[in-house]
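Friendly challenge for the regulars: who can give me the structure tokens for this chain first? No prize, just bragging rights.
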Amino acid sequence: MRILPVPHRTLSGRAAVSRRGLLRVGGALGAMLACPTLTQGRPERIRVRLLVGPDQSLCHLPVTVARQLGYLEAEGLDVALMEAPTPAVALAALHAGRAQFASGSFLQVVLRQLLGDSVQSVVVDGRSPIAAFGVCTRALPGVKSVADLKGRRIGVSAPGTSSELLARVVLARAGVQPHEVTWVTLPGLREAVLAVRAGRVDALSHIDPGVTQLEQRGELRLIADPRTVKGARDLFGGPLPGTCLYAASGYVERHREVCQAVAHAMVRALRWLQTAQPQDLIAAVPDPQFTEDRALYLASFYKVRECYSVDGVLSSDAGRTTSTVAGALAESSGAGLDAAVERGHTNEFALKAKARWLKA
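First reply, four minutes later:
Bragging rights claimed.
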């Protein structure tokens, strides 16, 4: 894992954040506390580490917005972002106390609950996955069905990510088992694009803005696209949550004030994203996240904006869909699935944050 640098930018309007706040985050990295607490009187900055995937991914944009616009700082949080290459690395860091929160797939959180792993989501910031699955037109120009992918090479961002889980669902419906394809891990967006162009994979399940770039240039023909609420319903039979912010269950129980502060900041960021204009994003998003193509990033954002939750709350419909899809992937059924969803998320913090910002 590596700590992501804090960009020093001059922002204005809704995107304003103090230089002092940015310097405070940067200066705190070497003295991070594993178990922060609140103090009496004027609160001391609560120092936490938050794990994300590739920093150019639109999956983690709500986290970026919450930090860049000063929403996390406004809640008394001093947050350092750290890049975790895989969900497995993120989970290990949470349980070892090297980080307090991680941004990742809610479906993966539920699958880990089924395996007895005590992790819990405190905010569901994606109401559908920001991932799509397609066939590489250069490698397989004449493929007719998903079943034709048996024995082929499937590129995904990492095991346990939304992109890998999406591919597994699509393949399973066509009767293709996970061991009947070759999985190729392509964590970076640029790495995924280059793999498609070099013919190193036959199909790709990945995230934006990489998918949009390949789709625009005719290099990827999509066969499953849940990047809208309707697309998710058509594919999964109902709304399937995408990204969430989660922590070890024990941490959530012991540090409810911190979880509430995080939820306040994240729900505020989600509300901002619903109406953000191009100039707002340009001001708020650090230059490296534009993947050297600002127009592509903005086009991708408007394609997936519907994927972002408006309030961070897990609906009952989304919970049922998650239970069904998790059961299919885990080849499990019964009350244990619903219980895993219930253990895997609490609406307590998002509901309070929603009520707060509705009054604002």
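Residues 8-41 have pLDDT under 50 and may be disordered. Residues 256-275 form the longest helix (20 residues). Your move, everyone else.
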